[in-house]
Amino acid sequence: MTAGALLSALVPAAGATAATADAPRAVAADDPVPGHEGMPDDGFEDAPEGEQDDLAGAGTSSSASAGADAQAVVPGRPGDFTLETGTGLTGLVGKLDAALPKQGLTELVTQANRDAGWNSTCGDAAIYGPDLVAAPRVCWADDDATSSEWIPQAITGVSDAQEDEDWGTSDAEPVAVAGYDDQNPGRSDYASGRDNCVQASASDACNEKGIRVSFFNQATKKYRHVLLAWPYLNSKDHISFDALHASEGKCTAASGVTASCKAQNGIHAGGMVWYGNYLYVADTANGMRVFDLRKIMDLNPDNDSSVHDPTPDGLVSNVVDKKRVGRQNNVWYAYGYRYVMPQIATLKFTTAKNSGTTSGNQCYATGRPKASYISLDRTGDDHMVLGEYCNVNNGGSSHGRVGTYPMTALTAAVEGAAGTTAKADLAYGLPDTGTFGGEALWHKIQGVTRYDGTWYFHRSNAYDNGRLLQATPKTVDGTTQLVANPKILESSFGPEDLYLAHGRGDGLPPKLWSLSEHAPSKCGVCKRELYSYDMGEVISGFGS
Protein backbone atom coordinates (compact mmCIF):
# COMPACT_ATOMS: atom_id res chain seq x y z
CA MET A 1 0.00 0.00 0.00
CA THR A 2 1.34 3.44 -0.86
CA ALA A 3 1.86 6.12 1.76
CA GLY A 4 -0.90 8.23 0.32
CA ALA A 5 -3.34 5.32 0.22
CA LEU A 6 -2.70 4.39 3.82
CA LEU A 7 -2.92 7.96 5.01
CA SER A 8 -6.24 8.49 3.29
CA ALA A 9 -7.52 5.24 4.75
CA LEU A 10 -6.65 6.30 8.28
CA VAL A 11 -8.42 9.66 8.32
CA PRO A 12 -12.00 9.89 9.59
CA ALA A 13 -14.70 9.04 7.11
CA ALA A 14 -16.88 11.87 5.90
CA GLY A 15 -19.75 12.53 8.24
CA ALA A 16 -18.10 10.68 11.12
CA THR A 17 -18.25 13.56 13.58
CA ALA A 18 -20.53 13.47 16.59
CA ALA A 19 -24.16 14.45 16.35
CA THR A 20 -24.87 17.99 17.36
CA ALA A 21 -26.79 18.90 20.48
CA ASP A 22 -29.76 19.91 18.32
CA ALA A 23 -29.92 16.60 16.45
CA PRO A 24 -33.15 14.63 16.88
CA ARG A 25 -32.85 11.91 19.47
CA ALA A 26 -34.04 8.40 18.72
CA VAL A 27 -36.34 6.75 21.22
CA ALA A 28 -34.64 3.67 22.70
CA ALA A 29 -35.73 1.24 25.37
CA ASP A 30 -33.58 0.94 28.45
CA ASP A 31 -30.69 -1.49 28.26
CA PRO A 32 -29.94 -4.08 30.95
CA VAL A 33 -28.76 -2.68 34.25
CA PRO A 34 -25.05 -3.06 35.09
CA GLY A 35 -24.22 -6.66 35.75
CA HIS A 36 -24.50 -7.79 32.13
CA GLU A 37 -26.26 -11.04 32.96
CA GLY A 38 -27.01 -11.59 29.29
CA MET A 39 -23.50 -10.86 28.03
CA PRO A 40 -22.22 -13.75 25.87
CA ASP A 41 -18.91 -15.52 26.12
CA ASP A 42 -16.79 -14.53 23.13
CA GLY A 43 -16.00 -18.18 22.40
CA PHE A 44 -12.27 -18.17 23.03
CA GLU A 45 -10.32 -20.56 25.22
CA ASP A 46 -8.44 -19.36 28.29
CA ALA A 47 -4.69 -19.26 28.53
CA PRO A 48 -3.17 -20.75 31.72
CA GLU A 49 -2.70 -18.75 34.88
CA GLY A 50 0.75 -17.16 35.11
CA GLU A 51 0.93 -16.75 31.32
CA GLN A 52 4.45 -15.84 30.19
CA ASP A 53 5.65 -15.74 33.79
CA ASP A 54 9.28 -16.72 34.45
CA LEU A 55 8.36 -17.69 38.01
CA ALA A 56 5.22 -19.73 37.22
CA GLY A 57 5.16 -23.39 38.21
CA ALA A 58 7.17 -25.47 40.63
CA GLY A 59 10.29 -26.08 38.56
CA THR A 60 13.74 -25.27 39.98
CA SER A 61 17.08 -24.44 38.44
CA SER A 62 18.55 -27.73 39.60
CA SER A 63 15.99 -29.67 37.55
CA ALA A 64 16.28 -27.44 34.52
CA SER A 65 19.46 -28.91 33.09
CA ALA A 66 18.03 -32.40 33.11
CA GLY A 67 14.88 -31.18 31.40
CA ALA A 68 16.88 -29.30 28.79
CA ASP A 69 19.09 -32.33 28.05
CA ALA A 70 16.00 -34.47 27.45
CA GLN A 71 14.51 -32.09 24.90
CA ALA A 72 15.95 -32.34 21.42
CA VAL A 73 15.36 -29.61 18.87
CA VAL A 74 11.77 -29.84 17.71
CA PRO A 75 11.36 -30.42 13.95
CA GLY A 76 9.43 -27.79 12.07
CA ARG A 77 5.76 -28.61 11.47
CA PRO A 78 4.19 -25.69 9.56
CA GLY A 79 0.82 -27.44 9.48
CA ASP A 80 0.47 -27.05 13.25
CA PHE A 81 0.42 -23.26 12.79
CA THR A 82 -2.53 -23.08 10.35
CA LEU A 83 -5.01 -20.31 11.17
CA GLU A 84 -8.67 -20.08 10.17
CA THR A 85 -11.03 -17.12 9.97
CA GLY A 86 -13.69 -17.23 12.68
CA THR A 87 -17.27 -16.04 12.59
CA GLY A 88 -17.53 -12.63 10.97
CA LEU A 89 -17.87 -9.50 13.09
CA THR A 90 -18.29 -7.04 10.22
CA GLY A 91 -22.03 -6.62 10.75
CA LEU A 92 -21.63 -5.89 14.45
CA VAL A 93 -18.82 -3.41 13.82
CA GLY A 94 -20.96 -1.76 11.17
CA LYS A 95 -23.70 -1.23 13.76
CA LEU A 96 -21.17 0.38 16.13
CA ASP A 97 -19.90 2.47 13.26
CA ALA A 98 -23.39 3.84 12.74
CA ALA A 99 -24.01 4.41 16.45
CA LEU A 100 -20.79 6.19 17.44
CA PRO A 101 -18.56 8.93 16.01
CA LYS A 102 -15.15 7.91 14.66
CA GLN A 103 -11.65 9.34 14.84
CA GLY A 104 -8.82 8.83 12.35
CA LEU A 105 -5.51 7.57 13.65
CA THR A 106 -3.71 10.59 12.19
CA GLU A 107 -5.80 12.93 14.33
CA LEU A 108 -5.62 10.67 17.37
CA VAL A 109 -1.81 10.65 17.30
CA THR A 110 -1.66 14.39 16.60
CA GLN A 111 -3.94 15.04 19.57
CA ALA A 112 -2.16 12.64 21.94
CA ASN A 113 -2.63 13.89 25.48
CA ARG A 114 -0.16 12.13 27.79
CA ASP A 115 3.42 13.36 28.19
CA ALA A 116 6.30 10.90 27.88
CA GLY A 117 9.91 11.40 28.90
CA TRP A 118 12.69 11.15 26.31
CA ASN A 119 16.30 10.00 26.82
CA SER A 120 17.95 11.94 29.67
CA THR A 121 14.61 13.10 31.10
CA CYS A 122 13.94 9.45 31.93
CA GLY A 123 16.67 9.51 34.57
CA ASP A 124 19.19 6.73 35.17
CA ALA A 125 19.56 3.79 32.80
CA ALA A 126 20.23 1.11 35.42
CA ILE A 127 17.86 -1.41 33.83
CA TYR A 128 20.12 -1.80 30.78
CA GLY A 129 23.13 -4.06 30.37
CA PRO A 130 26.58 -2.95 29.14
CA ASP A 131 26.49 -4.63 25.73
CA LEU A 132 24.16 -2.26 23.86
CA VAL A 133 23.28 1.45 24.03
CA ALA A 134 19.57 2.09 24.45
CA ALA A 135 18.68 5.26 22.52
CA PRO A 136 16.17 6.67 22.31
CA ARG A 137 14.61 5.80 25.65
CA VAL A 138 10.99 6.68 26.31
CA CYS A 139 9.41 6.67 29.77
CA TRP A 140 5.72 6.77 30.58
CA ALA A 141 3.68 9.22 32.63
CA ASP A 142 3.91 8.45 36.34
CA ASP A 143 0.60 6.59 36.69
CA ASP A 144 1.39 4.34 33.71
CA ALA A 145 4.97 3.78 34.87
CA THR A 146 3.83 2.49 38.27
CA SER A 147 0.41 0.96 37.51
CA SER A 148 -0.27 -2.47 38.98
CA GLU A 149 -3.30 -2.79 36.71
CA TRP A 150 -1.84 -2.19 33.25
CA ILE A 151 1.27 -4.14 32.21
CA PRO A 152 2.98 -3.14 28.90
CA GLN A 153 3.76 -6.13 26.73
CA ALA A 154 3.64 -5.85 22.90
CA ILE A 155 5.07 -3.37 20.41
CA THR A 156 4.67 -2.43 16.75
CA GLY A 157 4.90 0.76 14.72
CA VAL A 158 4.64 2.58 11.44
CA SER A 159 7.56 0.63 9.94
CA ASP A 160 5.36 -2.45 10.19
CA ALA A 161 2.37 -0.53 8.87
CA GLN A 162 3.95 0.54 5.59
CA GLU A 163 7.30 -0.12 4.03
CA ASP A 164 8.32 3.47 3.27
CA GLU A 165 7.33 4.71 6.76
CA ASP A 166 6.25 7.98 5.13
CA TRP A 167 3.28 8.36 7.42
CA GLY A 168 1.38 11.60 7.65
CA THR A 169 3.01 14.98 7.13
CA SER A 170 5.45 15.05 10.05
CA ASP A 171 8.05 12.92 11.78
CA ALA A 172 5.47 11.46 14.18
CA GLU A 173 6.39 7.87 13.19
CA PRO A 174 4.04 6.31 15.73
CA VAL A 175 5.05 3.41 17.94
CA ALA A 176 2.19 1.39 19.43
CA VAL A 177 2.38 -0.56 22.70
CA ALA A 178 -0.24 -2.97 24.03
CA GLY A 179 -0.80 -3.48 27.74
CA TYR A 180 -3.02 -6.02 29.51
CA ASP A 181 -5.15 -5.63 32.64
CA ASP A 182 -3.43 -7.70 35.30
CA GLN A 183 -6.01 -7.20 38.04
CA ASN A 184 -8.11 -10.17 39.07
CA PRO A 185 -11.67 -10.15 37.67
CA GLY A 186 -14.21 -8.69 40.04
CA ARG A 187 -17.50 -7.91 38.39
CA SER A 188 -18.95 -11.42 38.87
CA ASP A 189 -16.98 -12.47 41.95
CA TYR A 190 -19.71 -12.70 44.59
CA ALA A 191 -17.51 -14.53 47.09
CA SER A 192 -15.19 -11.56 47.44
CA GLY A 193 -18.02 -9.11 47.99
CA ARG A 194 -17.29 -7.27 44.74
CA ASP A 195 -20.25 -8.56 42.77
CA ASN A 196 -21.15 -5.11 41.52
CA CYS A 197 -18.21 -3.07 40.29
CA VAL A 198 -20.26 0.09 39.89
CA GLN A 199 -21.04 0.40 43.59
CA ALA A 200 -19.47 3.42 45.29
CA SER A 201 -17.14 1.31 47.43
CA ALA A 202 -15.66 -0.56 44.46
CA SER A 203 -12.34 0.45 42.92
CA ASP A 204 -12.42 1.31 39.24
CA ALA A 205 -9.89 -1.53 38.87
CA CYS A 206 -12.65 -3.99 39.79
CA ASN A 207 -13.54 -4.76 36.17
CA GLU A 208 -11.30 -6.81 33.90
CA LYS A 209 -10.66 -4.22 31.17
CA GLY A 210 -8.80 -6.50 28.78
CA ILE A 211 -6.30 -4.74 26.48
CA ARG A 212 -5.45 -1.14 25.68
CA VAL A 213 -3.08 0.15 23.00
CA SER A 214 -0.98 3.27 23.54
CA PHE A 215 0.03 5.21 20.39
CA PHE A 216 3.23 7.23 20.92
CA ASN A 217 4.02 10.25 18.73
CA GLN A 218 7.80 10.57 18.33
CA ALA A 219 7.51 14.18 17.15
CA THR A 220 5.53 15.54 20.10
CA LYS A 221 6.70 12.95 22.69
CA LYS A 222 3.06 12.37 23.66
CA TYR A 223 0.88 9.27 23.61
CA ARG A 224 -2.77 8.26 23.85
CA HIS A 225 -4.58 5.12 25.07
CA VAL A 226 -7.21 3.24 23.04
CA LEU A 227 -9.35 0.51 24.63
CA LEU A 228 -9.80 -2.64 22.53
CA ALA A 229 -13.33 -4.01 22.54
CA TRP A 230 -15.53 -6.98 21.61
CA PRO A 231 -18.78 -6.00 19.81
CA TYR A 232 -22.02 -7.85 20.61
CA LEU A 233 -25.80 -7.46 20.70
CA ASN A 234 -27.16 -7.12 24.23
CA SER A 235 -30.35 -8.70 25.57
CA LYS A 236 -32.39 -5.81 24.15
CA ASP A 237 -30.89 -6.48 20.72
CA HIS A 238 -28.93 -3.22 20.88
CA ILE A 239 -25.36 -3.02 19.66
CA SER A 240 -22.85 -2.74 22.51
CA PHE A 241 -19.27 -3.64 23.35
CA ASP A 242 -17.24 -5.03 26.21
CA ALA A 243 -13.54 -5.30 26.96
CA LEU A 244 -11.65 -8.26 25.45
CA HIS A 245 -12.21 -11.38 27.53
CA ALA A 246 -11.33 -15.00 26.95
CA SER A 247 -14.39 -15.98 29.02
CA GLU A 248 -17.39 -14.35 30.62
CA GLY A 249 -19.47 -15.90 33.36
CA LYS A 250 -21.37 -15.26 36.53
CA CYS A 251 -20.30 -17.01 39.71
CA THR A 252 -22.59 -17.78 42.62
CA ALA A 253 -21.92 -16.85 46.21
CA ALA A 254 -21.34 -20.52 46.95
CA SER A 255 -18.84 -21.22 44.17
CA GLY A 256 -16.84 -18.03 44.06
CA VAL A 257 -14.31 -17.79 41.23
CA THR A 258 -13.17 -21.34 40.51
CA ALA A 259 -11.77 -23.28 37.57
CA SER A 260 -15.33 -23.91 36.37
CA CYS A 261 -16.49 -20.34 37.02
CA LYS A 262 -13.79 -17.87 36.09
CA ALA A 263 -16.07 -14.87 35.70
CA GLN A 264 -14.04 -12.52 33.50
CA ASN A 265 -10.68 -13.76 32.28
CA GLY A 266 -8.57 -11.50 30.08
CA ILE A 267 -5.95 -12.14 27.39
CA HIS A 268 -2.24 -11.35 27.49
CA ALA A 269 -1.52 -9.65 24.13
CA GLY A 270 2.12 -10.70 24.17
CA GLY A 271 2.69 -9.54 20.60
CA MET A 272 1.23 -7.10 18.09
CA VAL A 273 1.69 -6.18 14.42
CA TRP A 274 0.25 -3.11 12.64
CA TYR A 275 0.07 -3.89 8.93
CA GLY A 276 -1.74 -1.55 6.57
CA ASN A 277 -5.06 -0.74 8.20
CA TYR A 278 -5.09 -3.82 10.41
CA LEU A 279 -3.79 -4.36 13.92
CA TYR A 280 -3.06 -8.02 14.75
CA VAL A 281 -2.99 -8.84 18.47
CA ALA A 282 -1.73 -12.20 19.76
CA ASP A 283 -4.19 -14.28 21.79
CA THR A 284 -2.05 -16.98 23.40
CA ALA A 285 -4.53 -19.85 23.52
CA ASN A 286 -6.34 -19.14 20.26
CA GLY A 287 -4.35 -17.32 17.59
CA MET A 288 -4.90 -13.66 16.77
CA ARG A 289 -7.58 -11.00 17.14
CA VAL A 290 -7.70 -8.38 14.41
CA PHE A 291 -8.73 -4.70 14.57
CA ASP A 292 -9.23 -2.06 11.89
CA LEU A 293 -7.55 1.29 12.49
CA ARG A 294 -10.26 2.94 10.38
CA LYS A 295 -12.81 1.94 13.05
CA ILE A 296 -11.64 3.85 16.13
CA MET A 297 -14.73 5.12 17.97
CA ASP A 298 -14.54 8.51 19.70
CA LEU A 299 -16.73 8.97 22.80
CA ASN A 300 -15.63 12.55 23.45
CA PRO A 301 -15.28 14.44 20.14
CA ASP A 302 -15.41 17.89 21.77
CA ASN A 303 -12.53 16.92 24.10
CA ASP A 304 -14.52 18.19 27.09
CA SER A 305 -15.04 15.30 29.49
CA SER A 306 -17.52 17.30 31.58
CA VAL A 307 -20.00 17.31 28.69
CA HIS A 308 -21.78 14.09 27.74
CA ASP A 309 -21.50 14.27 23.97
CA PRO A 310 -24.49 13.30 21.79
CA THR A 311 -23.87 10.27 19.57
CA PRO A 312 -25.20 9.64 16.04
CA ASP A 313 -27.68 7.04 17.35
CA GLY A 314 -29.41 9.69 19.47
CA LEU A 315 -27.86 8.70 22.80
CA VAL A 316 -24.98 10.27 24.75
CA SER A 317 -21.52 9.16 25.83
CA ASN A 318 -19.80 9.42 29.23
CA VAL A 319 -16.00 9.35 29.59
CA VAL A 320 -15.92 10.22 33.30
CA ASP A 321 -17.33 6.99 34.75
CA LYS A 322 -14.48 4.46 34.92
CA LYS A 323 -16.62 1.56 36.12
CA ARG A 324 -18.95 1.01 33.16
CA VAL A 325 -18.45 -0.18 29.60
CA GLY A 326 -20.62 -0.36 26.49
CA ARG A 327 -24.22 0.80 26.18
CA GLN A 328 -25.99 0.95 29.53
CA ASN A 329 -29.33 2.67 30.10
CA ASN A 330 -28.98 4.61 26.85
CA VAL A 331 -25.51 5.96 27.68
CA TRP A 332 -22.21 4.84 26.13
CA TYR A 333 -19.23 4.14 28.44
CA ALA A 334 -15.68 2.85 27.96
CA TYR A 335 -14.21 2.68 31.48
CA GLY A 336 -13.37 6.36 31.17
CA TYR A 337 -11.45 6.03 27.90
CA ARG A 338 -12.22 8.35 25.02
CA TYR A 339 -11.27 5.95 22.23
CA VAL A 340 -12.49 2.40 21.59
CA MET A 341 -11.42 0.08 18.76
CA PRO A 342 -13.68 -2.98 18.20
CA GLN A 343 -12.43 -6.35 17.02
CA ILE A 344 -13.30 -6.98 13.36
CA ALA A 345 -11.96 -10.51 12.80
CA THR A 346 -10.59 -13.60 14.52
CA LEU A 347 -7.85 -15.93 13.28
CA LYS A 348 -7.96 -19.21 15.23
CA PHE A 349 -5.55 -22.14 15.18
CA THR A 350 -7.07 -25.21 13.52
CA THR A 351 -4.80 -27.76 15.22
CA ALA A 352 -5.96 -29.39 18.45
CA LYS A 353 -4.03 -28.70 21.63
CA ASN A 354 -1.43 -31.14 22.83
CA SER A 355 -2.82 -33.13 25.77
CA GLY A 356 0.03 -32.11 28.07
CA THR A 357 -0.49 -29.59 30.87
CA THR A 358 0.47 -25.96 30.31
CA SER A 359 -0.16 -24.66 33.84
CA GLY A 360 3.55 -23.89 34.27
CA ASN A 361 4.09 -22.53 30.75
CA GLN A 362 5.09 -25.91 29.34
CA CYS A 363 5.34 -26.36 25.56
CA TYR A 364 5.17 -29.39 23.30
CA ALA A 365 6.70 -30.59 20.04
CA THR A 366 3.34 -31.19 18.36
CA GLY A 367 -0.15 -29.76 18.38
CA ARG A 368 -1.45 -26.22 18.49
CA PRO A 369 1.29 -23.64 19.18
CA LYS A 370 0.90 -20.71 21.55
CA ALA A 371 0.61 -17.24 20.06
CA SER A 372 2.89 -15.76 22.71
CA TYR A 373 4.50 -13.08 20.51
CA ILE A 374 4.39 -11.88 16.90
CA SER A 375 6.40 -9.52 14.70
CA LEU A 376 6.81 -8.51 11.06
CA ASP A 377 9.70 -9.28 8.72
CA ARG A 378 9.91 -6.81 5.82
CA THR A 379 13.39 -7.78 4.59
CA GLY A 380 11.96 -10.06 1.88
CA ASP A 381 8.38 -10.83 1.02
CA ASP A 382 6.39 -9.55 3.99
CA HIS A 383 5.91 -12.24 6.65
CA MET A 384 4.53 -12.39 10.15
CA VAL A 385 6.60 -14.34 12.66
CA LEU A 386 4.80 -16.08 15.54
CA GLY A 387 6.37 -17.90 18.46
CA GLU A 388 5.89 -19.53 21.85
CA TYR A 389 6.89 -18.60 25.39
CA CYS A 390 7.89 -21.78 27.26
CA ASN A 391 9.37 -22.66 30.65
CA VAL A 392 11.21 -26.00 30.44
CA ASN A 393 11.87 -25.91 34.19
CA ASN A 394 8.35 -27.26 34.54
CA GLY A 395 8.56 -29.99 31.89
CA GLY A 396 7.08 -30.25 28.44
CA SER A 397 8.81 -31.55 25.33
CA SER A 398 9.85 -28.33 23.61
CA HIS A 399 11.80 -25.13 24.21
CA GLY A 400 9.34 -23.48 21.87
CA ARG A 401 8.51 -23.19 18.19
CA VAL A 402 8.34 -20.34 15.69
CA GLY A 403 6.47 -20.15 12.40
CA THR A 404 6.08 -17.62 9.59
CA TYR A 405 3.04 -16.59 7.52
CA PRO A 406 2.97 -14.65 4.24
CA MET A 407 1.12 -11.43 4.96
CA THR A 408 -0.83 -11.91 1.73
CA ALA A 409 -2.36 -15.06 3.28
CA LEU A 410 -3.19 -13.34 6.58
CA THR A 411 -4.78 -10.35 4.85
CA ALA A 412 -6.87 -12.68 2.68
CA ALA A 413 -8.03 -14.54 5.79
CA VAL A 414 -9.00 -11.32 7.58
CA GLU A 415 -10.98 -10.13 4.57
CA GLY A 416 -12.34 -13.56 3.64
CA ALA A 417 -15.35 -15.59 4.70
CA ALA A 418 -15.45 -17.71 7.84
CA GLY A 419 -13.27 -20.80 7.35
CA THR A 420 -10.66 -19.09 5.15
CA THR A 421 -7.25 -20.46 6.12
CA ALA A 422 -3.82 -18.86 6.39
CA LYS A 423 -1.04 -21.42 6.35
CA ALA A 424 2.46 -21.04 7.71
CA ASP A 425 5.16 -21.55 5.11
CA LEU A 426 7.96 -22.25 7.59
CA ALA A 427 8.38 -23.52 11.14
CA TYR A 428 11.32 -24.27 13.42
CA GLY A 429 11.91 -25.48 16.90
CA LEU A 430 14.12 -23.26 19.04
CA PRO A 431 17.73 -24.32 19.68
CA ASP A 432 18.45 -26.42 22.77
CA THR A 433 22.04 -25.36 23.42
CA GLY A 434 23.56 -23.37 26.27
CA THR A 435 22.66 -22.61 29.85
CA PHE A 436 22.09 -19.38 31.72
CA GLY A 437 21.74 -18.89 35.46
CA GLY A 438 21.79 -22.65 36.06
CA GLU A 439 18.97 -23.41 33.61
CA ALA A 440 18.36 -23.77 29.88
CA LEU A 441 19.22 -20.65 27.89
CA TRP A 442 16.76 -21.16 25.03
CA HIS A 443 13.39 -20.81 26.70
CA LYS A 444 11.43 -17.96 28.35
CA ILE A 445 11.38 -16.16 24.99
CA GLN A 446 9.26 -12.99 25.05
CA GLY A 447 9.79 -11.62 21.54
CA VAL A 448 11.26 -12.42 18.12
CA THR A 449 12.15 -10.73 14.87
CA ARG A 450 13.75 -11.95 11.65
CA TYR A 451 16.07 -9.59 9.79
CA ASP A 452 17.81 -10.45 6.51
CA GLY A 453 17.32 -14.15 7.24
CA THR A 454 18.81 -14.04 10.75
CA TRP A 455 16.60 -14.50 13.81
CA TYR A 456 16.75 -12.46 17.02
CA PHE A 457 15.02 -13.39 20.28
CA HIS A 458 14.38 -11.59 23.58
CA ARG A 459 14.89 -13.88 26.57
CA SER A 460 13.50 -12.74 29.94
CA ASN A 461 15.09 -13.36 33.33
CA ALA A 462 12.47 -12.60 36.00
CA TYR A 463 13.37 -9.33 37.78
CA ASP A 464 16.86 -9.03 36.32
CA ASN A 465 18.58 -8.30 33.01
CA GLY A 466 17.34 -10.41 30.14
CA ARG A 467 19.31 -11.46 27.08
CA LEU A 468 19.19 -10.89 23.33
CA LEU A 469 19.86 -14.11 21.40
CA GLN A 470 20.65 -14.81 17.74
CA ALA A 471 20.10 -17.90 15.59
CA THR A 472 20.55 -18.72 11.91
CA PRO A 473 18.93 -21.46 9.78
CA LYS A 474 21.49 -24.12 8.89
CA THR A 475 21.43 -27.69 7.64
CA VAL A 476 22.16 -30.19 10.41
CA ASP A 477 22.03 -33.94 9.69
CA GLY A 478 20.14 -33.28 6.50
CA THR A 479 17.45 -30.99 7.96
CA THR A 480 17.28 -27.22 8.25
CA GLN A 481 17.01 -25.92 11.80
CA LEU A 482 17.81 -22.81 13.83
CA VAL A 483 21.38 -22.93 15.09
CA ALA A 484 22.24 -20.66 18.00
CA ASN A 485 25.06 -18.15 18.02
CA PRO A 486 26.96 -18.89 21.27
CA LYS A 487 27.36 -15.15 21.81
CA ILE A 488 24.58 -13.54 23.86
CA LEU A 489 24.00 -9.85 24.61
CA GLU A 490 22.70 -8.45 27.89
CA SER A 491 19.39 -6.62 27.56
CA SER A 492 17.04 -4.74 29.88
CA PHE A 493 15.18 -5.83 32.97
CA GLY A 494 11.84 -7.37 31.95
CA PRO A 495 12.49 -7.44 28.17
CA GLU A 496 9.42 -8.03 26.02
CA ASP A 497 8.29 -7.99 22.39
CA LEU A 498 10.49 -6.82 19.46
CA TYR A 499 9.79 -4.39 16.60
CA LEU A 500 12.19 -3.46 13.78
CA ALA A 501 12.03 0.12 12.44
CA HIS A 502 13.89 0.17 9.12
CA GLY A 503 14.46 3.92 8.98
CA ARG A 504 13.36 4.20 5.36
CA GLY A 505 11.09 7.15 6.05
CA ASP A 506 13.58 9.32 7.94
CA GLY A 507 16.96 8.14 6.64
CA LEU A 508 18.00 6.92 10.08
CA PRO A 509 19.72 3.56 10.54
CA PRO A 510 17.50 0.57 11.37
CA LYS A 511 16.46 0.37 15.03
CA LEU A 512 15.44 -2.66 17.07
CA TRP A 513 12.73 -1.51 19.48
CA SER A 514 11.50 -3.21 22.64
CA LEU A 515 10.11 -2.38 26.07
CA SER A 516 10.51 -3.33 29.72
CA GLU A 517 7.42 -4.41 31.66
CA HIS A 518 8.29 -4.27 35.37
CA ALA A 519 7.12 -1.41 37.56
CA PRO A 520 9.47 -0.11 40.30
CA SER A 521 7.40 -2.00 42.89
CA LYS A 522 8.75 -5.28 41.49
CA CYS A 523 12.44 -4.74 42.32
CA GLY A 524 14.87 -2.08 43.46
CA VAL A 525 15.91 -0.89 39.99
CA CYS A 526 12.93 -2.08 37.94
CA LYS A 527 11.53 0.48 35.54
CA ARG A 528 9.16 0.65 32.57
CA GLU A 529 10.60 2.13 29.41
CA LEU A 530 10.24 1.93 25.65
CA TYR A 531 13.66 1.80 23.99
CA SER A 532 15.61 0.95 20.85
CA TYR A 533 19.02 -0.39 19.89
CA ASP A 534 20.92 0.51 16.72
CA MET A 535 20.51 -2.63 14.57
CA GLY A 536 24.03 -2.27 13.19
CA GLU A 537 25.35 -2.37 16.75
CA VAL A 538 23.24 -5.44 17.47
CA ILE A 539 24.61 -7.26 14.43
CA SER A 540 28.23 -6.37 15.22
CA GLY A 541 27.67 -7.30 18.85
CA PHE A 542 26.96 -10.85 17.74
CA GLY A 543 30.16 -10.88 15.69
CA SER A 544 28.36 -10.94 12.37
Number of strands: 32
Structural class: mainly beta
Separation of the first and last Cα atoms: 33 Å
Tell me the strand percentage band: 25-35%
Global morphology = globular
Which radius of gyration do the C-alpha atoms yield?
23 Å
| Assembly status | single chain
Unreliable parts: 1-29, 32-38, 60-70
Helical residue percent band: 10-25%
Q: List the total number of helices.
A: 8
Mean pLDDT across all amino acids: 87
The largest pleated sheet is described as:
13 strands, mixed
Blueprint (SSEs and pairs):
Elements: H1 3-10, H2 61-69, E1 83-85, H3 90-99, H4 105-110, E2 114-115, E3 117-118, E4 137-139, H5 142-146, E5 150-157, H6 158-161, E6 175-181, E7 211-217, E8 222-233, E9 239-243, E10 272-275, E11 278-283, E12 287-292, E13 297-298, E14 316-318, E15 325-328, E16 331-334, E17 339-349, E18 373-377, E19 383-387, E20 401-406, H7 407-415, E21 421-422, E22 426-429, E23 435-436, E24 439-440, E25 445-451, E26 454-459, E27 465-476, E28 479-484, E29 489-493, E30 499-501, E31 511-515, E32 529-534, H8 535-541
Parallel strand pairs: 8-17, 14-16
Antiparallel strand pairs: 1-17, 1-21, 2-8, 3-4, 4-32, 5-6, 6-7, 7-8, 8-9, 10-11, 11-12, 12-17, 13-17, 15-16, 18-19, 19-20, 20-22, 23-24, 25-26, 26-27, 27-28, 27-29, 30-31, 31-32
